[in-house]
Amino acid sequence: MKASESDDTYHIFRETVGAPLFKVMRQLSGRSERIYQVMRSAWLPPIVAGDSDTLTVETLHSLDRGKLQLLLSQRFTPDVWNNFVRPLVHRPGRSVFYAPVDTDGTFQMAMRERVIEAFNTTSPGDFISFAEKLYALESGKTDLSAFVAETYSTFRNFFSALHAVHQEVAYARQTNTPTPAHALMDARVTEEFPAEWLSYRPMDSQSARQVVKLLAFESGAGRDMAGLRSNFDTAEHELNARVLELSEIEEKFASLTGRALRAALNTEAEKRGGAGYLTILETAERNMRTVRQMRDHFDALLKAQSGVPIEVRPFVAILHTLASLTVQEPGTALVDTISMIEQPLRHYGFGTEALKQIAASGKSAASEAIATLMQAFGKSVQLNAENARLRTFFGFVDTDSTLTLKEKIHPILNQDTASHPWLAPAVKLARVAKTLASTGIGRADTDVRRATL
To answer: Fewer beta carbons under 10 A from the terminal one: N or C of the chain?
Structure first.
């Protein structure tokens, strides 16, 4: 069952929240976007205003075939025939077109070979002839006009699916949804799209990082950030209603001043909302400004997370390498290590408890240092082994202890550089240098995995 299934007489839709597990790493191709933009002006309105397309096609085919041919010629142009109809007809696997309904009312799918034969023997753009030839090839015995209308509804449903997906992408761009917007497309909607309409996203670190960002944002704020935006709207409307309510009460006692006005306002507010309600009304305007500021900050956060422009990515990769080389030195390690002494002293002061914690931390650090040094020579020791196993169990593992240098560099060399050809070697060299500088020495062959040198 797809997420959206519709006809001219019904519409079933199962709304998804966040990015569920039936998402796939696909996106609409430029070819699908172009043909959608070509089709939308002719295909969005009904064929005849006020009537369903299925009923219109069925009625006109039986009463005035020539008029129907003229109306549909505006939709099945040569461009649409080659880039919309052809991919659906030649789609590998099961056909997406129905065969004529059997005399007992059973619906079956048409054979793909017969669909292709009907298409190949039809003049480009002649949808009615295509449907009639498919009817003959499938040895139809029931109403021909109903079958022509059913075949047209197949094309209409695919256009509606394209329209829905492109609307989602357009909305994501307008609302600064973290890109790649809907990189994880709903597989239930796009599973029957032809390959020409889709492209797979590269599984490089940049795309993976952006997908994780998108999943994180959508898990907390809803798909397209709709959940959090709805909360902002609700809060603003409620606070605005209280601002108007306070203005109404103040107008009611406009003739009073000073303490008399204050007492009257407080009395009236308590009648409406109980004790302290006047304070709620008076702070509503300030709180509404706060909500608007939070909305602006959230939008700014989304915009900031919308990814690095493709032209800047090569320079960002080189900058990351310089930063990585800068911090890979003993001074950085010393700064990180000194916190074992500084933090207990700051929290407890100079005393017994602080010294105990410093000693325990020093003992643990010494054990890890010895075990790490032995691991660099391919040896495994059992110092503090239980803690190491727990870290491994919960996923806190230095990946260098499980991956070889070759295993790390190979995907980097095959990763998309998203840059001009003359910059690509510099980007690859920078990534390799960063990997070499940040790769530790020492692989673990047991479940006791330590940090690497």
So the answer is: N
